Structures are given as C-alpha cells and as structure tokens.
Amino acid sequence: QLPLVESGGGSVQPGESLRLSCAASGFTLENYAVSWFRQAPGKEREGVSCISRRGINRNYADSVKGRFTISRDNAQNTVYLRMNSLKPEDMANYSCAAVVAGLFRPCELSPREVRYRGQGTQVTVSS
After folding, report:
1. Which of 3, 17, 19, 24 maximizes the CB count within 10 A of its CB?
2. Is the alpha carbon torsion for 82, 95, 109, 126 positive or negative?
3. CA dist list (Å): 4 to 29, 41, 63, 64
4. With contact defined as beta carbons under 8 Å apart, do 23 and 8 qualify?
C-alpha cells in the first residue's frame, strides 16, 4: 500500500473548481508538514502550497494565491487542496509530499526533507 495517495483530479473548464485529497496510510500524517507540487509537461516541478503540522502556517505560490486553499484533517489523516477559478495554466500533475518538520516550524514550498511522496493526480483545465 502506497504511503500517500492523491485523488480528486479531473477535467474541468476554466473558472471551475476541484478539491484534491492527499491521504496517508501506514503512518500518522499529523507528524509531518505537507506540501503540494505540480508538474506540467516539459516544465519543472513547482511547489504550489504547503501546510505546517498544526495547520497554523500555510503558504502559497504567487500564481495560486487567492484561488487555492490548503487544509488538513488530522483525524482523517488527509490534507486537501481546494482549487477555485482554475485556469488553463493550472493544468498539471499534482502530487503531495510528507515533509519532516518540527512541530512549530513554518512549512516550505521547496522543502528539503521529503519523507514520502505520492504519485499524483492529473488536473486538466480546458474549454
């Protein structure tokens, strides 16, 4: 069983919304910060958003600020990424990662110590 599994991707039209889920199994996700990444064909992977262990600190890439919201439900061992007002340039494979971090440490969009990484879910935005 994979430690992190993303779901919720799909094909939408510009302006629509999706909610991605990052579900952990076999370990307690609460013990890690979580980052979301995306990678489009021919482009490097970029950090989209992250959330600290307690959920107090949340960061977003400039390209998604005001449109994406990250949250976590530690009871469900899951982190979510709500994506509103999707644009064609948001189209990519989205993946999540569990990041080693101190309890009160702010999260990082480019984390250094990834412990687990999911395989991703595809988001397509096209009219």
Report:
1. 24
2. negative
3. 9, 22, 25, 23
4. no
For 28-82, write each residue's pLDDT tens digit: 999 999 999 999 999 999 999 999 999 999 999 999 999 999 999 999 999 999 9
CB-neighbour burial class of residue 92 (10 A; exposed 0-12, middle 13-18, buried 19+): buried
Cα–Cα distance for residue pair 4/24, rounded to 1 Å: 5
- CA 86/CA 107 separation, integer angstroms: 24
Query: How confident is the model over 63-74, as pLDDT tens digits?
Result: 999 999 999 999
Q: Which of 15-19, 101-105, 119-123 has the lowest average pLDDT?
A: 101-105
Q: What number of residues does the chain have? A: 127
At 86, is the secondary structure helix, strand, or coil? coil
Residue found by looking up tokens 């340039």 in the block = 89
